[in-house]
Design brief:
Blueprint lengths: L1 H25 L1 E6 L7 H16 L4 E6 L7 H10 L4 E5 H4 L4 H5 L9 H8 L2 H8 L6 E7 L4 E5 L14 E4 L3 H9 L3 E4 L5 H6 L5 E4 L1 H6 L8 E8 L3 E6 H5 L3 H35 L3 E3 L5 H5 L2 H7 L3 H12 L2
Parallel strand pairs: 1-2, 1-3, 6-7, 9-11
Antiparallel strand pairs: 3-10, 4-10, 5-8, 5-9
Helix pairs in contact: 2-12
Length: about 325
């Protein structure tokens, strides 16, 4: 009887200890990569996601955010995330589009009529389908972050017509689509890591680049390339992906927590983004940058016909573009 009582007391204690040990073993810090500066909205969104995950998991899981290219440029971090060396990665859809054709569609020039049109696409079934499309490539798509509209800026002269673009050496993302787009406009594209652009501008290796308002300001590109033309040629969003290896290490309950925290962080980021855009635009104007808003955009749009022909050879991708255009 004494032995039975002892066993009755010891067995639950052993089970409890084993369960606690298992929980401790599964607890971990997840590494997240972002090329932007610490105070940039995408980085702050990842920090916000960490807070949500920590709260929902009782501190078992945390997200360590490595900003300012600490883990490498986007092209490098995408590959590291794919193989599981990085757990989460915030990247623009254009660089990851080399692996995921559906993501590349979102970077097509002049595809979205407005930011409202973009949001309706990203927040609906089309956005969900694009996030799901990354899974065969070693990622799990969690959310889209805002990236505003990208425009052309340079140090040589104001761009008021498509002829003004001809011959300019313009930095683009390391993406075949972006290289082809700039060639179609008559420029000489230079695919270059984000962190090297300012040096390229100041040393005259390149004449200009293309990006959104906050990136133009936070990188100090505006000090070297003072002519900014609001072409808004692409509204390619940012995408937050998780490595399949890291995702599979989570329980189903924790996966749901991470996915919801990512979605909540996207809304947090979107609220921050609008004020950042306006503040950045005002800072550029106050610094004496020449901002060109009045020009004929139609020739820029017409020049993209060959881009659509080249990158939409797959019927599935053409259908995706049609769905996007029809979204109201």
């Amino acid at each position: 009887m004494v032995k039975v009582r002892l066993l009755n007391g010891v067995v639950p204690l052993l089970v409890s200890c084993l369960l606690q040990g298992s929980m401790q073993a599964s607890a971990r810090d997840f590494r997240a990569a972002d090329t932007q500066a610490e105070d940039y909205p995408t980085v702050q969104a990842l920090v916000f996601m960490d807070q949500l995950v920590a709260t929902k998991t009782g501190g078992r899981h945390r997200i360590r955010v490595f900003h300012s290219r600490q883990l490498g440029e986007e092209k490098e971090t995408i590959e590291q995330t794919r193989v599981g060396a990085i757990d989460l990665n915030r990247t623009n859809v254009a660089p990851i589009g080399g692996l995921v054709p559906e993501a590349n569609v979102l970077a097509l020039p002049f595809l979205f009529r407005s930011m409202d049109h973009l949001y309706k696409v990203l927040d609906g079934p089309i956005g969900a389908d694009v996030l799901a499309s990354v899974e065969p490539h070693g990622f799990v798509g969690l959310a889209f972050y805002d990236s505003g509209a990208r425009s052309i800026y340079n140090s040589v002269h104001p761009v008021r017509s498509i002829s003004d673009v001809k011959g300019l050496r313009v930095r683009v993302q390391q993406s075949d689509l972006m290289v082809a787009m700039m060639k179609a406009l008559g420029a000489e594209p230079v695919a270059m890591p984000y962190g090297q652009v300012l040096t390229g501008l100041t040393t005259k290796l390149i004449d200009g680049a293309e990006n959104n308002w906050p990136s133009y300001i936070t990188t100090n590109h505006f000090t070297a390339a003072r002519h900014y033309t609001v072409t808004e040629h692409t509204m390619s969003p940012e995408v937050l992906v998780m490595s399949r290896k890291a995702w599979d290490s989570l329980s189903a309950e924790d996966q749901a927590i991470f996915r919801q925290a990512a979605q909540d962080s996207a809304q947090f980021m979107r609220r921050q983004w609008k004020s950042w855009e306006e503040r950045s635009r005002q800072q550029a104007q106050q610094a004496g940058c020449i901002v060109i808003t009045e020009f004929d955009k139609r020739p820029f749009m017409d020049a993209m016909t060959e881009i659509y022909d080249k990158f939409l050879s797959d019927a599935k991708l053409r259908t995706l573009v049609d769905r996007i255009r029809q979204a109201e």
